[in-house]
Amino acid sequence: NEQYNFVENIKKADLISINLGSNDVISPSFISAFAKLSADTENEKLADIRAFLDKTGNFGAAFNKLVDVYDTMGKLADVVDTLRSEFSRTLGLFKENYTAIVNAIYAMNPDVTVIGVGTYNIFRDFKLSKDSKLDISVLAAPFVSDLNTFIDSFEMTHKGQYYYADVVGTETYEVIYDDPHMWDLWIFKVHPDLAGHAFMAEQILDCLPSADNFFTPVVNAYDRLISRLAGLSGELFNTFYRLLSGGFRFGGISFGNISFGR
Length: 262
What we know:
It is built from 11 helices and 5 strands; from the N terminus they run αβααααβαβαααααββ. With 262 residues, the chain is an alpha/beta fold. It has a 5-stranded mixed β-sheet with strand order 3-2-1-5-4, sandwiched between helices.
């Protein structure tokens, strides 16, 4: 915080974007669910999975093995129930933390404009395996919807100063289940590809006040930007970079000193 003058940047920013959610709800839910489901020390198969994780650090592959074991035991419902319980628990914690963050920002900077960036279902097109009986996409969907509804709700409590960017529909990388390195790469596969980043940027720009007038040249250039980034003028590139990064990022929060029609 001292290195980046975190508090001071909040106080002087005209615009702050907050992009939190997936890593606060989905990731810890899987980690805690795995710990609970693999805790039986008398089950040799579960012990082997824990040893595999300790040796390789490959959590995705370890969780996939865990699901297979529970499926073999006829207890796949236990996996579903545990994940739902953990999703619910971490979502509650996220809501408390997000509320505290937003309140702290406005306490330090009452006039700031905040963009609350929603999240997308990172498992929308992802399964543990091609033939997996556990559809994580369907399991996660209601919690992603609840999370986005919550992030959106601050538009009502901070009218004219808080805007919600809906990024549901963000494209991610294609999952190739026959790839021998699938589980080494899965953590990257659930993140946006180039089209996904373009979509998210457009959603953020579209929700900003006066975006239609102020950012039209940037929005119109976005499609060309992906393929012709090197050909852009220095001025346009710098403008675009400031818009996407907000001028400064710390974790899931971005700061900027550009005024958006307030």
